[in-house]
Amino acid sequence: MTQRIGNPLPFFTDKRGLPMDGGRLYVGEVNEDPELSPVTLYLDEACTAPIAQPLLIVGGFATDDGNPAFFYVQEDTYSLRVRDRDGGEVYYFADAVVEQDQWQPVNPGLSAIAALVTTAYGRGVLTQPDASALRTYLGMVASLPLSGGTMTGNILRNGGGPHVYHTNTAFTSGRIFITAAGAPDPTTLPGDIWLERAP
Predict the structure, then answer these.
(1) What distances in angstroms separate CA 175 from CA 17, 71, 138, 148, one per listed residue?
(2) Along the 199 residues of the chain, how does pLDDT read in single tens digits?
(3) From the CB of residue 107, how many other CB atoms can be counted at a distance below 10 Å?
(4) Which residues contact 68 (CB under 8 A, 6 or more apart)?
(5) Collapsed DSSP state (helix, strand, coil) of residue 134
(6) Mapping DSSP to helix (H, G, I), strand (E, B) and coil, where does residue 110 land?
(7) Rounded distance, CA 175 to CA 191, Å?
(8) Are 60 and 11 in contact (CB under 8 A)?
(9) Do residues 29 and 80 touch, judged by C-beta distance below 8 A?
(10) Which of 3, 51, 108, 180 has a Cα-to-Cα distance from 57 of 20 to 30 A?
(11) Residue 156: what are its φ and ψ, rounded to 5°?
């Protein structure tokens, strides 16, 4: 594959069209004065390394400590002003965004998704059309069966209170009955508990 070579950095000129040297670049809120309403500039696309304004323009390039660099903002658009070395305004744009690639700050969750997409398994997970298809793809059951199966430990039943846990495996039931005094014994299974109210 071939690539066309181009200048990746913006180039700033003075009013005569010559490379600006010693100028200042200000970036601010859209449709506002960037010197009075600046936005935070960053040296990295993750927006973790802020840099102070104004940016010094050297040989036509905005620089960081004299070295041409890329700069980033988190805003979708911004205003921009350039002043020459004497402080005179060379140009001002109320909405200066250039149609180009936008950078998404690095996010651990997005990075994990991106890593997942690189595997066949991950692509399969992410391309399922709905939750039902995803459960089928992953071999997950929609819910616990209504009968049968084995469960260990203690569980809470929706609307039914706690399930009694017996350490004695001979006890097959965990029902608790509370009756009025003199009522007949309702227990029928090993592990049933009967509490009779005093008269």
Answers:
(1) 90, 69, 36, 17
(2) 666 777 777 888 888 888 899 999 999 999 999 999 999 999 998 899 999 999 999 999 999 988 999 999 988 889 999 999 999 999 999 998 776 555 566 677 777 777 776 777 777 887 888 888 888 888 887 666 666 666 666 666 665 555 677 777 777 777 888 888 889 998 888 888 888 887 7
(3) 11
(4) 9, 58, 61, 62
(5) helix
(6) helix
(7) 7
(8) yes
(9) no
(10) 3
(11) -115, 130
The DSSP output letter for 157 is E
- Domain 23-93 in CATH 3.30.70.360: no
46: its two tokens? 């993750």
Q: What angle do CA 119, 121, 125 make, to 5 degrees?
A: 115
Q: Determine the straight-line distance between the first and last CA of the chain, rounded to whole angstroms.
A: 92
Distances (CA, A) of 157 to 53, 109, 174, 179, 187: 61, 34, 12, 22, 21
- The CA-atom distances, in angstroms, between 145 and each of 94, 142, 169 are 63, 9, 22
Quick one: DSSP state of residue 105?
P
Domain with CATH 2.170.14.10 in the chain: 23-93
Please compute Rg for the chain using Cα positions. Answer: 35
Task: Tell which residue, 27, 7, 26, 3, has the closest CA to residue 68.
Answer: 7
Phi-psi region of 166 (alpha: psi -120 to 50; beta: other; left: phi over 0): beta
